[in-house]
């Protein structure tokens, strides 16, 4: 028996027990190796005319034997010689695939896509297997060899039989323990699920023999009471879909296909509201396919909700929810990012370098913003639905960034216009403003109906100014953090701001800071206040500490009196804040 070197032994133990957080990735690793082996042979056929081979002959087969407790992953790739087995599987952290990738970096182009790089993936098999046997015949060799190990002491290599070039990796699964049920992997369903989940876009077919059922042909002499009979049969089926939908040109994918992909991948039953992609080339090449869901997931506003995009590296799933790819205010977006250029860490569960992710995330964010703007412009009804589902998150984004995200998000917001009696954007509000209007007015409360009846709202409307009626809890906080909205001021010849241009303040009509009374009206009010001094004083005395003062107002039209607050915090906001947890 050949011994693992001591370091190797320690490393192996480390590998098996602590690098991976998830046992089930063993199949992803073995299929990735098989795909690499097939890719290498294919590459050889491109560069060596003596290799007669076409791409459709190449593939990977997965099978299992419930009684023997084995899972076999076979490929008809490049195979391994006796020395290869010794070097590649006897030395932990030795990756021939990485060397291959580096040596052939220039020639391989898009046609070959090697996944391996760390020389540890193979050993993940020992997370689920008590022993592993690898039978391999290198392309062009006569003799096959078998490598075998229990993953503890060492391994053996001996001559073996295999008809054609390629490799079989045969795992004998561990016995079930109280914590772990290894039998879950010994089923058609279990294996299919893993292949679909992790290796769906491996570029060679991953096949499995699957059980099917069909109706037997009706016998000629069947009587009237004939009942159809069924029989079981098996068929070899390709489980993975190989070409990722995001790698196909937008023009040859139908929207229904995108919808199907979306619903299957993200477990939604409604079609997405919007589908769009990014194709980036250069130092960091990647593809992204993004969706805006047609409805809000039930847990979107709960703390259990996890944002993130699926992340693929070289066609293999790395992370199901990569949070860093999405900003919080777009946490509802679903999708996939795929790149060959990511520097993954050793478990291939995370990335080594965050600036790659940051660069992608920035582009993703920009793309989402521009798509939403497009939707707002071209599909108003669709956009209003979107905003009903996810608008709160956008406003929350402005609020929690202390207004920093205003430039990006404010033009995407919709509010109910008291004048137009429909949803308007802030730009539409500005557009419709009479020349003498100085601010954007809003009122906050819990229903449109009630807000529309407020005396102060009607006063403002009476002046010809529109009022935005805000019913979401976050509206007022969002406006407070924005402070104002509108294009930068125009400059005169001397470079000074032209009066009346520039952003308009956002003013809560209930906050008592409104001032659009004319000089005459103010004088009139002052006079009235003087004339009625005794009355006002008596009212204040009667109401006591419940109020701070009684005054004559220029802000009412029909209503005789109104209760208001002073300062920027409205009654509505006070109510909300008093409900917030400490
Ligand atoms: P990596 O894939 O990162 O190189 P692995 O531990 O998964 O590391 O595999 C180690 C090496 O073993 C590979 O680089 C490859 O040379 C060899 N190998 C593994 N599986 C196969 C296979 N099915 N066919 C041919 N070579 C293989
Ligand atoms: Mg590997």
TrEMBL record:
InterPro entries: HATPase_C_sf (IPR036890), HATPase_dom (IPR003594), Heat_shock_protein_90_CS (IPR019805), HSP90_C (IPR037196), Hsp90_fam (IPR001404), Hsp90_N (IPR020575), Ribosomal_Su5_D2-typ_SF (IPR020568). Transmembrane segments: none annotated. Keywords: ATP-binding, Chaperone, Coiled coil, Cytoplasm, Nucleotide-binding, Stress response. Residues 518-545 form a coiled coil. Residues 22-177 form the Histidine kinase/HSP90-like ATPase domain. It is found in: Cytoplasm. PROSITE patterns: HSP90. CDD domains: HATPase_Hsp90-like (cd16927). This is Chaperone protein HtpG. It comes from Senegalimassilia faecalis.
